[in-house]
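Format notes (please read before filing issues)

Several people have asked whether sequences and structure tokens are stored in separate files. They are not. Every record keeps both together, in the order shown below: the sequence lines, then the token lines. Line labels are part of the format and must not be stripped during preprocessing.
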Amino acid sequence: MDCATARRKTNGQRSKARPTGTTSRYQWVAACTLSDGRIAVAGGVNKDIFLEALRNQAPDYLQHPAEWYRFNPNVFIYDPDTESWSIEETTAEAARAGASIVAGQDCDLYLLGGEIKPRIRTAETLYINEIRRH
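Then the structure lines:
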């Protein structure tokens, strides 16, 4: 779907669809448009933990294991045709902040690099093949 088609479908109005549940807790996510027009969103930090760390500078903040920071492990898909969100995959490999995301052909995607916890970056690439419609 190109931009002009998307604008015609919504009469120029922004969609009022909002992610529910866990999706609204994360900041610094990566997003891209899949080959069929859906939008993939992955990664991001847990906003509550991050803001608490800024407010109350705990000396051991950087000493925790990666799981403690609760970075987003979900790959969310937004479908503009149905104005709905779904979780495509949940994996610790997707729990990254500041990663890049690139759409491939046939509704697959690549999540590249990012932080797996504060100050610790990965060079790993996560490949997700053939993202299905829900």
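For reference, the curators noted about this record: Confidence is low (pLDDT under 50) at residues 1-11. The first helix runs from residue 3 to 9.
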